[in-house]
Amino acid sequence: MIKLQIVGNLGKDCIVKEVNGKNVINFSVAHTERFKDSQGNQKERTTWVECAYWTDRTAVAQYLTKGKTVYAEGAPEAEAYMNKDNQAAATLRMRVQSVQLLGGSGGDAPAQRPASSSSSVTSSPSSGSIASDSPVADDLPF
User: Rounded to an integer, what distance in angstroms lies between the CA atom of residue 14 and that of residue 60?
Assistant: First the structure.
């Protein structure tokens, strides 16, 4: 499995939907990278990731609001398409396996903490998930 990890800010409040009897929380995360180009000019590049979090634990949705900083990991999905100007474009999506609230603007909401005292929320693979049945090792040397 390919794993994508992103830290960024939510671009808007999440949307909770029910699809075929399963709950999904949709949200978008922006990560802005600041760098200097070859001429020494300060530049910014923002990457947006559209996230789908299939989970029965929808209580976390109340904290997934615009401006919050989150860490999310899961399986990436890329889609190429032609935009309205007939130019080639691409969308980066992630099938979220876990999300952790890091803070950010929008109030002092506490991080979602499951009973295991971990600060992340992890969903089990469902029929709508592309997650592997094998466990992912968190102690890889790279």
Answer: 10
Which amino acid makes up residue 85? D
The residues facing 4 across adjacent strands are 74
Specify the pairing of strand 88-104 against strand 68-82. antiparallel
Query: pTM here?
Result: 0.68
**Correct CATH for 4-34+43-122 of 3.40.50.150, 3.40.50.10490, 3.20.20.140, 2.40.50.140:** 2.40.50.140
Strand partners, 32: 46
Q: Which two tokens stand for residue 109?
A: 């909401």
How many CA atoms are closer than 13 Å to the CA of 86, on its beta-carbon side? 0
CA 70 to mean position of chain CA atoms: 8
| Model pLDDT for residues 102-126, shown as the tens digit of each residue | 965 654 444 443 333 333 444 433 3
Rounded CA separation 27/75 (Å)? 15
